[in-house]
Input
Amino acid sequence: MTAAPELSVGGVDVSRETFEALRALEALVQRWNPAINLVSKNSLPGLWGRHIADSAQLFALCPPEATSWVDLGSGGGFPGLVVAILAKQLRPKLLVTLVESDTRKATFLRQAAVTLAVHVSVRSERIQSLGPLNADVLSARALAPLSDLLAFAKLHLRSDGIAIFPKGARYQDEISDARKAWDFDVDTRPSLSEAEAALLVIRNIHRHV
Output
């Protein structure tokens, strides 16, 4: 008897159970969005591609030895809840922490995690007020300019960890601006969901002396 064929989301092969969990997250966001504005109203019709598949492609860049992933400004769970759903199947030892200062969005994240039966830690505090989280992987999506994200990464990323930041068509300008204050190594990967966008995989972050 042959195994059921796997499905692919954002370049990640997943089981039918994981695929259905991602669909359940899609339905939860659709249900909660009118009250909390988890994502922009205009992006709701394309929620799967714009937010779920777009988030899944970050998971594909997770180093095999990573045990902690911190997502800053998680909002509606992108990419944090998507990462947690994928990790349940593919990286069960990966601890996912979602940082979201908006208490209503943090409530959504906690309720969604229970509904989806995924284990996450939700921190409803400002990023700057948290003590170092020592992440192996740190992500942030549509949160702040790259220079600001590097400051967050310097605080919360392990010295040998990686930061993964999706950026739009002007990502080269953001890199140039960030280099005025920071030294870092960046590997630019094409986005699977937006033609001119990129995923910035960043290591070795140091502020200029």
